[in-house]
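Operator note (shift B, R.M.): manual run for Probable allantoicase requested after the automated queue skipped it. Running by hand, logging everything below so the morning shift can see what happened. Input copied straight from the record, untouched. If output looks odd, do not overwrite the archive copy; leave it for review.
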Amino acid sequence: MDRPEWTADPDLASRRVGGSVVWANDELFAERENLIKPEQPEFRPWSFGHKGQIYDGWETRRRREPGIDQAIVRLGLPGVVTGVVVDTAFFTGNYPPFASVEAVAVDGYPSPGELSALDWTTLVPKSALKGDSENPFQVSSSRRWTHVRLSIHPDGGVARFRVHGRPVADPRLLDLGSFDLAALEHGARVTGASNMFYSSPNNLISPGFASVMGEGWETARRRDDGNDWVEIALAGEGVPRLAELDTSHFKGNAPGWASLSGSLDGETWFEVLPRTRLQPDTRHRFPLEQPRELSHLRLDIYPDGGMARLRLYGGLTERGRSEFTERFRAAQSG
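Run finished. Output pasted below as returned.
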């Protein structure tokens, strides 16, 4: 299927970035935690447990009275939601005919009971679903959200719930003088890449370590004289002091070399790290001897291959701090 452009935005709810399904009113047939698993749903015919066919998703019992079923997800990356996907893969005679999505923004770590008592904002009104399908719904909201609530009408099964968007970090929870300028969770974003054949370049700047090769960025094998690259708009204008290029899990397919370039406008580039030899399955750390202000970063790998993570440690400039803080404030009132 042709996927909407906004599905290229990271999944703010994914377990891989720290999301959690904190509550569901019912999960008799299949556990709520399946909703945010990062991998694609699977189906194994004739795999029955003591409650029936085992599904890789969230499935509630058949309702015999009016009502709806709900699940609340705490976003691993609070941010502006651009769209959601309600994936009913492999649910055919037992998918919900309708779904709706709401959101709320709250500080701290409220309990499910406290969350349920809040006033929620509708992101997706009650909308029809198709069975065994990805059901995408674009969202028009400029606010920063911390939790979303999926309602299914009246009951049934959903394989995955994807909440795509742009992370917006809370400056009150960060040391803006020393943090990862290229981190997705801090608001950095991929603006371009030469190739994403095996996996998304968003993985490069995702939280935590990659646990397997598939959690990094890997390109197809090149058969020409070129090289692959990724460009990133940083969390804000800053001065980097240390770069980390991590090839963990990439053994026979790590790049041979890499370089870093910086820019203040995304068009005019200067050298940050010269072309440097890399080793397979290794976290490389490079102090930057002549740090300069930059707002964009370009990673070039030679000629192709896979990288697990890219980190760029440093501090925001005065202008970077101002823009970083204003982005958060604007999304709070959006």
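Quick read of the result: The chain is about 5% helix and 40% strand. The chain has a mean pLDDT of 95.
Leaving this for review. - R.M.
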